[in-house]
Amino acid sequence: MDVIFGNLDLWGEAIANTLMVFFIGGIIALVLGFIVGAMRVSPVPIARGVGTAYVNIIRNTPLTLVFFFFVFGYPQLGLPELSNTVLGILAIGIYTATYVAEVLRAGINTVPVGQAEAARAIGLPFGQVMSLVILPQAFRSVVPPMMSVFIALLKNTTVAAGFSIAELAALRATINDAPDRPGNPMEVLLWVALVFVVLVFIMSAIQRYLENRWRIAR
After folding, report:
1. Could you tell me which Pfam families the record lists for this protein (predicted)?
2. How does DSSP assign 35-69, residue by residue?
């Protein structure tokens, strides 16, 4: 247990950074994914085209390359300087937004077309049709796949370790490079894996709770 208690400061920083990347990246993904998902089902051809292009380009690009663009390409654009942590959060949020958008689009497609047509027939604009009629029903059907997307987001935070972001996956190198720190690399990796297992278990429990609650509400 020396690897834990002898490095509590490093573990605290790594877990805090991992959760920060996960939560803020998740918020970006949810907001942007909602917008892109709405564009994907929009009756406006230009909006559909932009949404489709965004999803196809970003989703088909490896996450590591997205990180490379943000961490190494962004500073070359002459834009306001941002830390690697902020750039990593933007990278993972923008990447995950494509999966959120597709999950939402699939959920929207499960709602009978007649309901949208009836809403438009009484004069509701597209925004109100989506927010008042379609999305409340679609959200119930997308809980399992949406939670799978966020579990993948949590595990994808490990990519940030390769870009000077001090999160859990970087802990092995941090401890290994400090001779006065107890613990060997394999032992650190096993504990990191256990932390991720616990976090995923918590997210799975939240998923079951939401499924049961919304199933009763139907």
Report:
1. BPD_transp_1
2. HHHHHHT-SSHHHHHHHHHHHHHHHTS-HHHHHHI
Residue indicated by tokens 């998902």: 37
Cβ 92 vs Cβ 159: under 8 Å: yes
139: which residues sit within 8 A by CB, 6+ positions away?
A: 107, 214
Predicted local confidence at residue 216, as pLDDT = 45
Question: Is the CB of residue 204 less than 8 Å from the CB of residue 143?
Answer: no
Task: Write out pLDDT tens, residues 135-184.
Answer: 777 777 788 888 899 999 998 988 887 776 767 777 777 776 666 666 67
**pLDDT score of 178:** 66
> What is the number of other CB atoms lying within 10 angstroms of the CB of residue 46?
9
So what's the pLDDT on residue 150? 93
Q: Mean per-residue pLDDT for 104-130? A: 80
For residue 194, give the amino acid letter. Answer: L
CA dihedral sign of residues 127, 128, 130, 135: positive
Q: Do the beta carbons of residue 138 and residue 108 sit within 8 Å?
A: yes
Residue 41 C-beta-side C-alpha neighbours within 13 Å: 25
Mean pLDDT computed over 187-208: 88
The pLDDT score that the predictor gives to residue 153 is 93
Q: What DSSP character marks residue 71?
A: I
